[in-house]
Specification:
5'-nucleotidase,  domain 2, 28% strand, Purple Acid Phosphatase, chain A, domain 2
C-alpha cells in the first residue's frame, strides 16, 4: 500500500508542523534537523520527555485489537498538551517484526509515524529485517529523524537516511538526542559484514562531544540491552537514557552515574513521562501510563493500580486519533482480506510468547514437526531446530480458530527453511551452544525449539551442556550424519551449519509454509509437549534399586542443592518412546521414587538402552548455587518465569533393573554416543559418568512441571494447555514409537478428510 490514504487536511497539517519546525531555529548541519517540541511549550524551567515506541511493525496489540496505535497516540498527544516543553522520543524496532511488517516491509509504519511526528526515533535492529537497502529507503521516506550513533557505512558515514545524533528545540531549550544499537547487529540482522558497528563508549563519547556545546540536555534513545546502560551512563554528559532492547518494565526510573534511566517495556502496554529540572538535570516528576482494556479483564482481575506515578488508562475511555486510525485501518483491512480467514482449529492453547526461550511448547513442537516435512526429499529429515527469537508474537492462541494472520504474526520474519547434513557431533555442538546459562537476567534457557531429537540440557556457572541426546528414538551417533531442517537465519549464524553441507533450499519462508501447510492438510490440531528438552540442574549419583511386589523403588541421597523434592514431577524418560510416571515419591535425607516395574522393563526393551534417566523436580537451595545480583545480594531461585522449581536426574541402569525384577540381565542397547562428549558428561543412552554435572537451571516442561510462566499459564505448559498422564507422550510408553515423518504428523495432528498422509510442501 503505497498510496497516501490521509485527507488533504491531515497532510497539510503535517506539512505545517514540519515548516514550523524548520522556522524554529533548529540546528542544521552536522547535528541534523530536529522537530518542534511540546505543544504547550513555555519557560518554566522544566523539560518533559514522553518515550517508548517499539511497535514491532504492529498497529494493534498481538492479543487485543482494542489496544492499538490510534489510542496509544491519543494518550501521547494528551501528555504533550498537558506538560510544557515536551519532546516525544521512540527507541526503535518500529518497522518489524510482525505480519504487517512482513507484508509491507515497514512502509505502513513510516506512514503512521510521519503522522505522529516523533521528535526522533532511535533505530533498532528490526528496522534492518529486510536488509540495509530497504531500511535506508524507509529512513529516507521518514519526515522525522532516525538516530543511531554506532552504526556506520564502510566509509564511516551514518546509515543512509539516519543521523548519528540530532537536536530538537523544545520551548527555549535545545535537546540533543542520539541513538544506540546493540553491538550484536551482525548476529541478529542482515547488517553487512563490511559495515561498521562502534563500541558503546566510543559512540556515546562522540555524540556528547558533538552535542554538548549546542544543547541544554542530552538524551540517548536506546536500543541496547539493559545491562549496557551502565556503560553509556558512565559517559559524562548523558542526562537521560530512555527505552532499551530488552523489553524491561521498570517499577521506577533508575539513576546511574547521575544519568536517569527509564525502561517501560514495548509496544502498547506502557508510555513513559519524565519531567526534569533543566538547570540541575535532575528528575523532578515521572509517570508510567499503564494501558489496559477493561472489557478483557477476567472476573477475578482488577485494573492496574493507580498511584502518584502509575496512571492506568482504560482504552475503552480513550478516543482513537482519527488520522492514525485511518492509516491503521486501511492497512489492516487490506491484511484481513488476505490473511484473516481461519486456516486450522486448535484444540489446545498455543504458546507463541517468549516462553519459547525457556520451555518446550506445543507451538514449538508443531512448527518444528512441520519443518521436517518441507520439500520432497528422498531421505527423511531427521531433526528440525528453530531459534526461540524467531517466534515473535508474544501471545497465545486458542483453543479455537487459528487464522493466517495469527500464523504470520508468530513467524513474521523472511526466514527461508533450509536443510543441512550434520554429523552427530555437529548436532550435539549446536544444541549445546544454544543453551543460555546462568547467571543471566532470565535464568538459564535452552533458547530453541526442536523436533526429532530429545536431550538433557544444563546451564550453570556460565556454561551450557547437553547429554543423553537421542534422535528418532535412538542414541545419537557422533559419526553418523543426520538431515537437519532449520531457517537460514540460524544456519547463517551457527558454525555447525557449513555451506558445503547444505542439501536443500526450500524457497519457503517459515510463516507462509506453516500457514499453507496447516490450511491444506489439517482440520484440527492438538500439539502436545513431550520430553524433547529436559532440564537438569543437579545430577545425583549412587541410586539404588529395590523390587517390591510389582513396583521398583529407586532411592538416592538428597544433595545440598535440594531443599525439598516436588513429589508429583518424577518420571523415567524413554526418549522417543514415552515416559513412566512415578506412582509415589517420598523425600527426606533419602529420596525414594516408586515406579511400575513392568513399565520400566518395557521402557528398556523399547529403547534398547543401557541406562535411562529418572528426572524430577526440587526446590533449590539458593545458597548452594550462590548466584548474586549486581548489588551482591543472593539471587532467589529459580529465576525463569516459566518454572517454580529446578530438576535433578539420576541414572537407572537396565542391568540393575532386570537383575532386580529377576528378568534378563542383558541389554542389546547401542551405547554409540557414550564417548562422544568432551564435556565430562556421560554418554547418550548410557550411564552418566559425570559426578560434577552441575546442571542447568531450566526444567523440562512436561505438563507436571509446575511453574507460573510469564504468559499466565497454570504450570502445565507455559500457555500451551497440554495435559499430563492421559495424552500421548505422557503415559507409560505412550509416545509415537516407530512412527515418523508424515505418518507421525498424521497421527499426532490429524489430517483433513481426503488429505495425503502428512504435511507436504505447498
Amino acid at each position: 500500500m503505497s498510496q497516501d490514504t490521509r485527507s488533504e487536511e491531515v497532510v497539510d497539517e503535517t506539512r505545517r508542523r514540519l515548516l514550523a519546525a524548520a522556522a524554529g531555529g533548529v540546528t542544521v548541519g552536522a547535528l541534523g534537523t530536529g522537530a518542534t517540541g511540546g505543544a504547550a511549550a513555555q519557560d518554566d524551567g522544566t523539560l518533559t520527555l514522553v518515550h517508548d515506541t517499539h511497535f514491532h511493525g504492529r498497529f494493534e496489540d498481538a492479543g487485543n485489537g482494542a489496544i492499538d496505535i490510534a489510542r496509544y497516540y491519543a494518550i501521547v498527544e494528551e501528555l504533550r498538551s498537558e506538560h510544557p516543553n515536551t519532546a516525544f522520543f521512540g527507541n526503535g524496532d518500529d518497522l518489524a517484526p510482525s505480519v504487517l511488517g512482513l507484508e509491507f516491509e515497514g512502509e505502513h509504519m513510516v506512514e503512521a509515524l510521519n503522522e505522529m511526528g516523533p521528535d526522533a526515533v532511535g533505530a533498532g535492529n528490526h528496522e534492518f529485517d529486510f536488509g540495509v537497502d530497504t531500511a535506508s529507503e524507509r529512513f529516507e521516506a521518514s519526515e522525522f529523524p532516525w538516530v543511531i550513533a554506532n552504526l556506520l557505512t564502510p566509509e564511516g558515514e551514518p546509515v543512509p537516511g539516519t543521523e548519528r545524533w540530532t537536536t530538537v528545540d523544545v520551548g527555549s531549550y535545545t535537546v540533543g538526542v542520539f541513538g544506540m544499537g546493540t553491538t550484536g547487529f551482525y548476529d541478529i540482522t542482515d547488517y553487512p559484514e563490511d559495515w561498521q558497528v562502534l563500541g558503546y563508549t566510543e559512540a556515546a563519547e562522540a555524540a556528547v562531544e558533538a552535542l554538548e556545546p549546542e544543547t541544554d540536555f542530552i538524551v540517548c534513545a536506546s536500543h541496547v540491552s539493559s545491562g549496557v546502560h551502565e556503560t553509556i551512563a558512565a559517559v559524562d554528559g548523558v542526562d537521560a537514557i530512555v527505552g532499551s532492547h530488552s523489553n524491561v518494565v521498570y517499577e521506577e526510573p533508575e539513576t546511574i552515574e547521575g544519568t536517569t534511566v527509564a525502561e517501560f517495556g514495548d509496544e502498547f502496554d506502557h508510555i513513559g513521562r519524565l519531567t526534569f529540572d533543566v538547570e540541575t538535570g535532575e528528575l523532578s516528576e515521572w509517570e508510567r501510563v499503564d494501558v489496559y482494556d477493561s472489557e478483557a479483564l477476567g472476573e477475578d482481575e482488577s485494573p492496574p493500580e493507580s498511584t502518584e506515578n502509575y496512571t492506568p488508562r482504560d482504552v475503552r475511555s480513550v478516543e482513537r486519533d482519527q488520522s492514525i486510525a485511518e492509516i491503521a485501518d486501511g492497512y489492516l483491512s487490506d491484511l484481513e482480506e488476505r490473511l484473516g480467514q481461519p486456516v486450522v482449529e486448535t484444540e489446545v492453547e498455543l504458546n507463541a510468547s517468549f516462553d519459547n526461550y525457556e520451555i518446550e511448547t506445543g507451538w514449538g513442537n508443531l512448527m518444528t514437526d512441520l519443518m521436517r516435512e518441507v520439500g520432497n526429499l528422498d531421505q527423511e529429515i531427521d531433526v528440525a531446530v528453530q531459534n526461540a527469537g524467531g517466534i515473535r508474537s508474544g501471545s497465545t492462541y486458542g483453543p479455537g480458530d487459528l487464522t493466517g494472520s495469527d500464523v504470520m504474526n508468530i513467524l513474521p520474519f523472511p526466514n527461508e527453511i533450509v536443510v543441512y547434513e550434520l554429523t552427530g557431533a555437529q548436532l550435539r555442538s549446536y544444541l549445546q551452544r544454544s543453551v543460555r546459562p546462568m547467571p543471566g537476567d532470565y535464568g538459564a534457557q535452552p533458547a530453541i525449539q526442536v523436533s526429532g531429537v530429545s536431550y538433557e540440557w544444563t546451564g550453570h556457572d556460565g556454561e551450557g551442556r547437553v547429554r543423553n541426546v537421542w534422535v528418532g528414538g535412538e542414541p545419537l551417533d557422533p559419526e553418523a550424519t543426520y538431515l537437519v531442517s532449520t531457517n537460514d537465519f540460524v544456519a547463517g549464524r551457527s558454525e555447525e551449519f557449513v555451506e558445503d553441507s547444505r542439501v536443500f533450499n526450500s524457497g519457503q519462508f517459515q510463516g507462509p509454509f506453516v500457514k499453507d501447510t496447516l490450511d491444506a492438510e489439517y482440520d484440527t490440531i492438538a500439539p502436545e509437549r513431550e520430553e524433547r528438552m529436559i532440564r537438569v540442574d543437579e545430577v545425583v549419583e549412587d541410586a539404588s534399586v529395590e523390587a517390591t511386589a510389582d513396583a521398583l523403588t529407586v532411592s538416592f541421597p538428597r544433595t545440598d542443592a535440594v531443599s525439598s523434592v516436588v513429589e508429583d514431577t518424577y518420571r523415567l524418560v524413554a526418549p522417543g518412546h514415552g515416559v513412566v510416571e512415578a506412582s509415589s515419591v517420598s523425600g527426606g535425607e533419602e529420596v525414594a521414587v516408586e515406579l511400575a516395574a513392568d513399565a520400566v522393563v518395557e521402557a528398556f526393551d523399547a529403547t534398547g538402552a543401557d541406562a535411562l534417566s529418572l528426572v524430577g523436580g526440587f526446590d533449590p537451595n539458593s545458597e548452594h548455587y550462590g548466584y548474586e545480583n549486581e548489588d551482591g545480594e543472593l539471587v532467589e531461585l529459580p529465576v525463569n518465569a516459566s518454572y517454580d522449581h529446578y530438576e535433578l536426574r539420576t541414572s537407572l541402569s537396565g542391568e540393575d533393573v532386570r537383575a532386580t525384577v529377576g528378568g534378563d540381565d542383558g541389554s542389546d542397547g547401542d551405547d554409540s554416543d557414550g564417548d562422544d562428549s568432551d564435556d565430562g558428561s556421560g554418554g547418550d543412552g548410557g550411564s552418566d559418568s559425570d559426578g560434577s554435572d552441575g546442571g542447568s537451571d531450566g526444567s523440562d516442561g512436561d505438563g507436571s512441571d509446575g511453574g507460573s510462566d510469564s504468559g499466565g499459564s497454570d504450570g502445565s505448559d507455559g500457555g500451551d494447555g497440554e495435559t499430563a498422564d492421559d495424552t500421548p507422550g505422557f503415559g507409560p510408553l505412550a509416545g509415537a514409537a516407530g512412527v515418523s515423518g508424515a505418518a507421525y504428523l498424521y497421527g499426532k495432528y490429524g489430517a483433513s478428510d481426503g488429505a495425503d498422509d502428512g504435511a507436504g510442501d505447498e
